[in-house]
Amino acid sequence: MANNNEDNKDFDIMAKTLIWDALSGLKYSYAPYSNFKVSAALLTTSGKVYTGCNIENAAFSPGMCAERVAFAKAISSGEKGFEAIAIVGGMKGRGTQMVFPCGVCRQVMEEFCEPENFKIITATSAEKYDVYTLDELLPYGFGPHTLSGK
Ligand code: ZN
After folding, report:
1. Would strands 36-44 and 49-53 be described as parallel, antiparallel, or unpaired?
2. Is 6 assigned a catalytic role?
3. What is the pLDDT of residues 3-39, one digit of tens each?
4. How do residues 98-122 score in pLDDT, each as one tens digit?
5. What is the distance between the alpha carbons of residues 19 and 128, in angstroms, rounded to a whole number?
6. How close is the Cα of 8 to the center of ligand 1, in Å?
7. Which of 56, 67, 110, 111 is catalytic?
8. How many angstroms separate the alpha carbon of residue 65 from the centre of ligand 1?
9. 78 CA to middle of ligand 1, Å?
10. Entry pTM
11. CA of 148 to the centre of ligand 1 (A)
12. Residue 130, CB half-sphere, CA atoms under 13 Å: how many?
């Protein structure tokens, strides 16, 4: 039991750190059309954190979600393993509501993360957050395991 509490305490410190990183990245969000700003902080298994913000576009389709921006930064820097991502956002750049990854971002996570282990932290502040596994948010996901017949 003591070990569990220690694990919970370590997770809580990690989650709060990621949430702070995500909250501090909200100022970079480029969302002139929706005004719905999102920021994400992605923790790799090597212990590095890559942040991302949503980047809208006048033509809409080229817009990018914060989560995929963080993944693109990490993967293009050579990262291959991921532990957790914190996501914050809301109207006018404040973390006013729990923000969940869209379906496309969940699919990107399925490509690079272990669905039963990767943690998705949605938060309005470091004190108020919820944690889900990718498996909970994308059950029966289509991933590399599918193509290998497993
Ligand atoms: Zn998305």
Report:
1. antiparallel
2. no
3. 567 789 999 999 999 999 999 999 999 999 999 999 9
4. 999 999 999 999 999 999 999 999 9
5. 10
6. 28
7. 67
8. 4
9. 22
10. 0.92
11. 26
12. 9
